[in-house]
Specification:
By secondary structure, the protein is an alpha+beta fold. It is about 35% helix and about 20% strand. The protein contains 9 helices and 12 strands. The protein has a 3-stranded antiparallel beta sheet with strand order 3-4-5. It has a 3-stranded antiparallel beta sheet with strand order 6-8-7. A two-stranded antiparallel ribbon has the order 1-2. The longest helix is centred in the first third of the chain and has 21 residues.
């Protein structure tokens, strides 16, 4: 009878190296393709970059995965009211129909963003003692400030669908991070990932690498691991892509230009592609969907950013990364329905 063993069977060293290299290469590709404040962002008060829904969807697309969802547990207490959803997301390979990863997401109406609402002094009910309420000081960009008061959210019923969508979004992000092995990408730069730093698979000595390592602080393509250059009549930094015939070029991505407005205040880059947004809203409005005219969309955005903007683009520029991700997702969902 053969002796059983519980020892860990190590993979072939060459295969292990190829797998590690493939993982690192994919991490570099994701890092290079992600757009800050759209695909990922830093939540105020934290330093760890957070993957947002558009970024998770992009990762799933890159890996050829389709997302499916299952509600594992829920509570719908309409009399309390209290609502909770626990959702599982499965990412399935489209070609092989194999589950690649799973993620869990939960959301409930007792979370502070749903449990409370903040109102100004003029909107306080007459029978409420303001001295017993939690307050916050809000400031405007022009220097003004005012006090807002925290009340119980008495309109939680209108947010039930939002709570369910949030649980689904959290499950998707969890599954996408697992599928791409990307937990470390959103905590530090690619160059700082220690997985390969201390044990290189080349015969170069550390001192030799230090002398020959190119400067990656600027004009360096992380996707193709080569520096960009600009010479002659070139108008921007770029590099030829190895192995392409005829030769294709990879151009350095430049941040959206910041142009001064007539007021002299610099215009913020938009967290959402404004060309896509305009086309999407035009199509939705043309379909006659109730409450999706541009006028009503602008009014909703102004409430979200607490502003009085005349253009949708101006209001969108004031959205936080998370607000922009939620709004873009809502538009995309509506677009699928028209």
């Amino acid at each position: 009878m053969e002796e059983q063993t519980t020892a860990l069977t190590l993979p072939d060293e060459a295969q292990f190296r190829r797998d590690i290299t493939a993982i690192n290469k994919f991490q570099q590709t994701v890092h290079a393709c992600m757009i800050k404040d759209s695909d990922y962002g830093v939540i105020p008060g934290t330093t760890k970059p957070t993957l947002l829904k558009p970024g998770a969807e992009k990762i799933a697309k890159l890996l050829g995965l389709a997302d499916t969802y299952e509600i594992l547990d829920k509570a719908e207490e309409w009399k309390l009211p209290f609502f909770r959803y626990l959702v599982k997301c499965k990412l399935v390979h489209v070609g092989m129909n194999v589950v690649i990863s799973e993620g869990m997401g939960e959301c409930n109406s007792m979370e502070s963003k749903y449990r409370w609402r903040w109102v100004s002094e003029r909107d306080l009910p007459e029978n409420v003692d303001r001295n017993n309420l939690v307050t916050q000081e809000r400031k405007s960009k022009t220097g003004g400030h005012w006090t807002v008061y925290r009340l119980d959210n008495d309109d939680i019923y209108s947010q039930v669908n939002t709570i369910l969508k949030m649980a689904k979004k959290r499950a998707l992000v969890d599954a996408a991070l697992s599928a791409g092995r990307l937990s470390d990408v959103f905590t530090q730069d690619i160059e700082d990932i220690p997985s390969m730093a201390q044990q290189d698979f080349t015969t170069e000595k550390p001192a030799d690498r230090a002398r020959t390592e190119p400067d990656k602080s600027q004009h360096y393509c992380q996707v193709h691991d080569t520096p960009f250059f600009m010479k002659g009549k070139m108008k921007a930094y770029a590099h030829p892509i190895d192995g392409t015939d005829p030769v294709e070029w990879c151009h350095e991505h430049t941040p959206q230009a910041v142009t001064p407005q007539s007021s002299g205040v610099e215009e913020q880059p938009s967290p959402i592609d404004l060309t896509w947004l305009k086309e999407a809203l035009d199509k939705i409005e043309a379909s006659g969907v109730e409450k999706w005219s541009k006028k009503e969309v602008l009014a909703r955005l102004n409430v979200t950013v607490n502003g009085e903007h005349k253009k949708i683009s101006d209001a969108v520029r004031q959205l936080s990364a998370e607000q922009a991700a939620d709004f873009a997702s809502e538009v995309a969902d509506m677009l699928k329905m028209v």
